[in-house]
Protein 1
Amino acid sequence: MQHLMSGAALFAQETGVEHRAAETAAPQPPAEVLLQIGNVAITNTIFTAWIVIIILVLVAYFSVRRMRDIPSGAQNFWELVIELWMGVAERTMGHRRGRRFMPLVATAFLFILFSNRFGTLPIQYLYIVNEHGEEIPVLRSPNSDLNVTAAMAILMIVLAEVFEFRSLGFGGYLKGLLIPNPMRWLEIFTRPLSLAFRLFGNIFAGEVLLATILVVAPFVMFVFIGLELFVGLIQSLIFSMLSLVFLSIATAHEDTHAGHTDEEDEGAIAGVTHGQPV
């Protein structure tokens, strides 16, 4: 009986140690500060965001600097991404508006997708020691920082409101705010909150889960890495698709004001393609 009690106590002690180690390894909601430039604090999430931007620019440049009529390799991949998002954008908001907003939405998708990968790669466990003797991870997914996701969400909603103002004019925009539905004001504030917290919550929870599993059960780590890769892809799609829908709703009146429809635009393009007068 004494041996049984000693074994239970030892198991409880080991479990407690693993629990404390998991709590220590798990990332915290505030992004850690890597360095201070004057009064500006550079966090690891911002530093990682810069790296993602540099990677995307360099990969895009070296992939398409020698364009071929018959694409292959990296050019084929980027053309596939563009064609897929072009198809989604045109089905959502028509040919003319889809071509206008596709670059913005596709860029947001690629940035979020590549940023999410930094939450699942082993390189996120590279640390430096700050002036207080604390270990600070050098790289961390930008989307695990609410400041980053909120900035992207606010940017998308502000752009949607600006385009809606241009589409309706001052009078029409003011009328849309007050007369049809006074709850429109609430919608303006809840949209960025929904975009920001959904992306931040899922990515941050994934990083906490991976850090915990690495301490508690590292032999099943590959299962959760695959799960988080899938979740990162889904969250990238959700953020981009919702942004596309918000932009589509904001500019729905443009075709009516312009006096033509997307079908007429497509017919005009087809006429030019076949050498027919428009």
Note: Confidence is low (pLDDT under 50) at residues 1-24, 260-278.
Protein 2
Amino acid sequence: MQFDRRAFLATLGTAAAITAMPSEVLADALEHHMIESLDAETSANEMKVRLGAGLLFGGALPSGKAGEELKKLEPMPEKPTLVDFFKYRFAPATAKHVLQSATDAMKKGEKEELILACLLHDVVLNLIKVDHGWWGAQMMEPYVSEKVSWGIRYHQALRFYPDPTVGYEYPESYNQIFGKDYVPPLYIKRAYEYARNHKSYMDARMITVHDLYAFDPTVKVSIDPFIDIIGRHFNQPKEGLGYDNSPVAHMWRTLIFPDTPL
């Protein structure tokens, strides 16, 4: 096996440090380097991070482009609130998107619960992207009304199906991401059909409507206009999110401590 001697020596430190190393340590280091090089060769075309990984963990944006740069995170307050997560954990791209969505809903005079649903519908993408509607609804259920969590759960399926009665068309961006011939999986189709005939259909559908106007990188947004709505409709636990022993506290703790290895 051919390998780059200079690249190998660069992994060991200074010349003085290398000279001081016992031969068996150098041999182990060389073997480790060669194994890593072999792995790099065999997996050159493989992903470093799976596409379903949350943005906080290095996952790509839904478009397939690189996500947020990993950087050292600020410590969270002892009893973190939802607003603290917006400040310290929800990746800028995700936060900007949901804030735009909620702002659009507010400007158009929607009810406060729908505004809150728009504010929360995609924040779980920081944790995980696979089936984010279901994950997101579960994450919020202990703290919001059934109307809000139901809307978050089914917006994922509804976004693939137009509804001209409310001005929702199939997003052109989906054609770019999935291709014009894309057909959603059967479970998504079934979820759509169930939601379409449900009395709460509009609670999810209107999230998709306000989603359409929430991807402008030049728009400046803030959590401040939504503080009162959060106070009225989000049941903030006194112990802090992640510490209230709810069935989903571990999901919030995962965002608090994303660098914990076990």
Note: Residues 5-42 form one domain.
